[in-house]
Amino acid sequence: NENQEYPLLLVRVTVGKPYYLCNQKPWEDPGRRQMEASCQNGTYHSVLGDRIKCSGTYREFIVYDNDQAYPHFIVWYKRKS
Predict the structure, then answer these.
(1) CA 46, 41, 58 angle in degrees (round to 5)?
(2) What is the Cα–Cα distance from 25 to 59, expressed in whole angstroms?
(3) Which one, of 79, 81, 80, lies nearest residue 7 by Cα?
(4) Whether 24 contacts 57, CB under 8 Å
(5) What phi-psi label fits residue 42: left (phi over 0), alpha (psi between -120 and 50 degrees) or beta?
(6) CB proximity list for 68: less than 8 A, separation 6 or greater
(7) Per residue in 35-61, pLDDT tens?
(8) 59 has which bridge partners?
(9) How do beta strands 5-13 and 69-78 pair?
(10) Which residues touch 22 (CB under 8 Å, ≥6 apart)?
(11) Are 19 and 47 in contact, with CB atoms under 8 Å apart?
């Protein structure tokens, strides 16, 4: 905005039983469609991409049901120069 403030959404997410992946290229193995299908057919509730284990960066959580994520807070912050 005009005050150089930026929004950050703090979201509560119900992960349930995650489909755990630590592959370098999960979009190829097992593939996007298989990840989606595993959550949509009831086997799993979410996908956990463990990028920390694969490449030392971060963990990625993916949910396919909108009811599993709830925007709880909006935090406004300013970046230090």
Answers:
(1) 15
(2) 14
(3) 79
(4) no
(5) left
(6) 13, 14, 15, 16, 45, 46
(7) 888 888 888 999 988 877 777 788 888
(8) 50
(9) antiparallel
(10) 49, 50, 53, 54
(11) yes
What does the alpha-carbon distance between residue 33 and residue 28 come to, in Å, rounded to a whole number? 10
pLDDT for res 37: 86
Q: What is the pTM of this model?
A: 0.70
Cβ neighbors of 58 (< 8 A, separation 6 or more) are: 51, 52
DSSP annotation string for the chain: -TT-EEEEEEEEE---SEEEE--S-TIIIIIHHHHHHHHHTTS-SEEEEEHHHHHSS-EEEEES-GGGEEEEEEEEEE---
Contact 59, 48 (CB under 8 A): yes
Bridge partners of 75?
8
